[in-house]
Structures are given as C-alpha cells and as structure tokens.
Design brief:
The chain is an alpha+beta fold and 303 residues long. It has 2 domains: 63 residues, no CATH class; 238 residues, Alpha-Beta Complex (Aminoglycoside 3'-phosphotransferase, Chain: A, domain 2). Helix content is 49%, strand content 14%. The protein is built from 8 helices and 9 strands. It has a 3-stranded antiparallel sheet with strand order 5-7-8. Strands 1-4 form a two-stranded antiparallel sheet. Strands 2-3 form a two-stranded antiparallel sheet. Helix 4 runs antiparallel to helix 5, helix 4 packs across helix 6 and helix 5 packs across helix 8. It starts with a helix and ends with a helix. 33% of the residues are buried. The mean pLDDT is 92. Its EC number is 2.7.1.81. It holds the Pfam family APH.
Length: 303
Amino acid sequence: MPPTIRFLDVFEAQTALMTLLADKGFPVPQIVPNLRGDVMSLETLRKNDNGDCSENIVRLLTYLPGTVYHNVPMTFPLAYDAGVFLGKVQEALKDFSHPSLHRPDYAWNLTGLTSLDKYLHCLHDDRPVKEKIRKIVQTFGEKVLSRIDELPQGVVHGDFTDMNVLVEEESTHPGKYRICGLLDFGDVVVNPHVFDLAIALMHVMSVVTDPIAFGGHFLAGFESIRALTPAEWDVLYYCVIARASQSYVLGHYTASIHPQNTEYLMVTAGSVWKFIDMWWGTPKEEIYKQWRDVKAFIQNQLA
C-alpha cells in the first residue's frame, strides 16, 4: 500500500479530533470542505519541472491569527496559562478514540525511543554526545517503559510546543499575552498523558534562562486542571529528558535529509543540548522540590 494511502486514516483521525476541539470551543484550525463536499482528497500533483508526479493528501484549513509563543517574551503567568490550556485539551480528548492513532512505529512517538540509536549517525563523530543519548534512552526504558501500563493513556496532541501555540497581546494590557490558538495536529497519537506534558515542559524550559522555575509554573497550571498520579509524577523527570534527546537527534537527522529547512528544524535542536546537560546533571528530587515550592507559592497567591 502506498504511504500516502496509509496516511489517509491518520488524516481522518486528525480531522475528527480538530472538529471535536472546535465544537468544544477551542481555538484550532477548522476544516473547509472542497467543492465536492469532502474534507480532504487524494490528488496527483507535479513534484518538479521534470514532470515527476506524486499522490498527495490535500485539505484546506482556516487561518488562525496570532503570534507563536516562541516569538514573545516568556513570562511565568503565560507559562501557567499554557499549562492550564494543555490540561483542558487533555480533558476534552479523554473520551476521544480512533484506531489509526495507535502509531507505534511513528518516529516521534516516545514509546519507540529505543529506536533512536539508528539515527545517531547524523551526529557524526561526536562520541560523548552519542554515549549520553544512549544512557538516557536506556534509563527511559528502565524507569518509564517498564511500567508504562501504570500510566493513564489516551489520545494526545503530541507536539504542544512554543512553535505550535499561538498568543495575542491583550488590548487593555500592553505587553501581556494570552493564548489564542493551537496548531499542528500531525503528531496526535495514543500515548501516556504524561508524555504529552513532558513534551510541552521540555519545549518551554529549553528556551528560557530559568527553566526549572518556568517548568514549575507550567506544571502548576496543568495540575490546576488535572493532578498527576503518583506514577506519572515519578516518571516525569525521565520523560522530559527523553523528549529532549529525541528532539535533539531527530532534529539533526531531519535537517541532514532536508537541508533547505535547516533553520526551522534546528529551532529546538539548536538550543536543547545545553538543556540536556543541565537537566541530566540536576538531581530529580532537587527539580521536584523547586516545582513543589512554585506550586505552593502560586496557591498562596490565588488563595
């Protein structure tokens, strides 16, 4: 079966998910039916001037105004609001299911992190980096994948990052931003919910100067909607570093095969190694203590 045909079911699932969120009031792109009334179609399009053609899935989405979170000043209140937003998205999706979203072979699925080794060649001869990545992957398998059945699961966005969250400036408070949209549903997958949280945390923390504090505010916002289970809390540290390693390696790999997109692809991978060094070198309980302190501070402020 051609790859494009296989992806039709995944696109159908993405469409159903976006429609559900839109119906529940979330600011997400909406599907515009074509002239035949279909939400997507399979079209043969020319790839280049040589006349080569390929089959492509085509659909039209509405435009969402706003600025990506990455391009505005990072603040603690906005990190908290982003955590709240992710928590609400997870709650909205808790009863959603689709068979096509079980994607064990998808490269960005954290459940398949142990396959990351086959992409390490893109790091060339950087042996210390490769060894650290391998150790992180091994630890993730031992600490997380070995107990994955203990972790609540469901359909998750899978890429809740500072490049996929839209914000807008409040007209009455210049310099203050609020979340106004969520983009890119290409990574939706059935996963432990804590993986979704870890992805979001890593991408927020890797671009700020005080990552643990920012992560604490994001986590406090998330837990104001849904508290983590003891098992989720226990594995979160390892899930964050696993995503950082995945982002670093796959970012370099994708840039190596699509060099024309290197600038975009390396937005995260370019900064994440410093974060990996910091996180892997900081004891888990030290990070968790800071997060508990942030949560207590916020709760006192809201009391």
